[in-house]
Amino acid sequence: MGVGRFVYTPILPLMHTQAGLSADAGAHLATANYVGYLAGALAGILAPALVRSRIALRGSLALLTGTLAAMPLMHTTTAWGLLRLLAGAASALVFVVAAGSLLHHLRDHPPHLSGWAFGGVGGGIALSGLLILLLRPVADWRAAWWAAAALTTALAAASWNLRPEEAPLAPPAKAKAKGNGNGNGKTKVSGTAGTHRHFGALLVSYTLEGVGYIVAGTFLVAAIGQGSEEWVGSGAWVLVGLAAVPSAALWARLGRRWSRPGLLFTALLIQATGIALPALVGGTAAALVSAVLFGATFIGVSALALAAGAHLRFPRSVALLTAGYSAGQIGGPLLVAPLLHHGYDRALLLAAAVVLAAAASAAVLRIGFPHRVVTEGGRAAPTGPEAATGTTLVATTASDTHAPRSRALGHSRGEAGRP
């Protein structure tokens, strides 16, 4: 999924110079992919059986690979846009099924293991950057897409026999109505104005992050490449992926010691710095530092924001947060498209400003954040990040079907290790 969805970023400069793709058209192709990703995620909500379907997984892997292989065969922006739309939908379904399987089979293991597994997205980013870095001197944009398809085929073959999540057992009617007698039944937050205020600040922050992150995620390689040697852009994308591999597990461990709102604020400041750096400083060193800062935060921000939403027990927090994030991703490239006629520096600076605004909203979230939320039964929910990175990252698919399990897992770990 990391290759299929993100290889477009290092190939984009080649399509600009060799395929005649304009800056505006490049932004629209990116938007098509993000619309497809949201559509695939919504399919996982509306048809929960897809999450537990091996046929859905294999079909999505095949479709994703096919869209990459077909890109060089098309010659119009419309056709490319349709292929990227399908690639987005397929990659979302791959993520839904794989994440459901992961959380199901690792639910009795430490949460940081899930974080490492989700680092596979970063691994795909790194491989896609390395692939284009090696091919750029000897091949054109068509060969780059075919090579990406071959790489995706190999990874799909390795994951072909992944066991999807098993169908849940229906709880007894009495337990469904009353819980288990130990306060572990369904919990609801009492609808306080403070909770609504905090969730509103979180929603604004995460939506703005969707706008800022995706601009960098789409145009960072092209921006770095316009003022550096050819290898620097693809090399920077490799560093983005390598930094992303351990980031989910790292932020999960940090969340055991510090509050999520504080960590979210810090991560957003770091990310804004990384996005703005190539536009403000320039040079190879700044580009590589930018790549590391961006790669180390974008998955962590998702994990922290979604975990904070689940902690607030706001109704359908996962779906609402992901809807805002997805809307930001769709709107981000369109927002900066008029600026691309003058290069990428202005677009990166605007993206950094948007992420800074997200950090400001996260700072508001820190004020009076309810670290202990009173549930319907009058019991205070645990405060730690136990549901943390691995369990909440599945929500980036916009699926609320996994939220009960992630909250239950977090609760059990809180009982064992925290007050």
UniProtKB/TrEMBL annotation:
SUPFAM superfamilies linked to this entry: MFS general substrate transporter
Pfam families the UniProt entry points to: MFS_4
UniProtKB keywords: Membrane, Transmembrane, Transmembrane helix
Chain residue ranges for the region called Disordered: 170-190, 378-419
Biased composition (Low complexity): 378-401
Transmembrane segments: 34-51, 81-103, 115-137, 203-225, 231-251, 263-281, 287-306, 318-341, 347-369
Stated name of the protein: YbfB/YjiJ family MFS transporter
Source taxonomy: Bacteria, Bacillati, Actinomycetota, Actinomycetes, Kitasatosporales
